[in-house]
Amino acid sequence: SGWKAAKKSKLPTEEPTTSEVPTQEYDENYEEPQRNMGLNGKGLLQITLSSLSNPQWGGGRSYEENLKICYQKCTANTQCTGIQIAPTYWDHQECFLMNGNELYDRSGWKAAKKSKLPTEEPTTSEVPTQEYDENYEEPQRSMGLNGKVLLQITLSSLSNPQWGGGRSYEENLKICYQKCTANTQCTGIQIAPTYWDHQECFLMNGNELYDRSGWKAAKKSKLPTEEPTTSEVPTQEYDENYEEPQRNMGLNGKVLL
After folding, report:
1. What are the distances in angstroms from CA 74 to CA 115, 118, 120, 172?
2. Which residue from 114, 43, 33, 124 is spatially nearest to 81, judged by alpha carbons?
């Protein structure tokens, strides 16, 4: 009771078959995109490219332009073996970077596999020299660093190129090293997987490496020293009207100010 309804005078037609996919949807690095198909596997990243209800989101890009961005994101990700695109009638135009190789029926979706699958990541010995820092041991791939997280820093974002000013991965890593070097409690760093939407750097207080797929870790080669003992209190801390200051001590009595 109280509702109102209206039917379209022209009902929507069926989506075109695979053979009718516009040529601008192709990419030379991918197999022909398949309509009404999904791609099984591990979801590496979900990217919201545009919105029907908010035209400002995505800057008025066309469907083909969004698809091109999705291809580019997958091509740049060594773990990505293909993409799947959510139905065009979703409010948000979603792109999914996938690690998998098996297509399956999925109404309204579209999927495309890379024609050339990514090779294995380089071994530790093949880590580019620009990732090194003289104050740190050699960075270890697929490793994390156990201990206390001192600080988590978001350096850049895949879905928002303005976040981070377009810095490269090596530039972000250099910033992470610098932040740890400036922190006396920091004993090393760990970097989140490159396929995360946000490029995260973690300053750590710990010294034990452990297996952590997709991560990278590096320990300081020179760990911070202990604070000086009482006898090593710098002379500039003295005042001739006072006894020698004592570290790790308090003074009982009434607080005047």
Report:
1. 12, 10, 16, 20
2. 114
Whole-structure pTM value: 0.41
For residue 175 the two structure tokens come to: 């910033």
pLDDT by residue (tens digit) across 81-115? 999 988 888 888 888 999 888 899 989 999 999 88
Neighbours of 46 (CB within 10 A): 13
The rounded distance, in Å, linking the Cα atoms of 208 and 9 is: 68
DSSP annotation of 159: S
Between CA 64 and CA 75 the distance in angstroms is 16
17-26 long-range contacts (CB < 8 A, ≥24 apart) are: 22/64, 24/64, 25/64, 25/67
Share in percent of the chain as helix, strand, coil (round to 5): 15, 35, 45
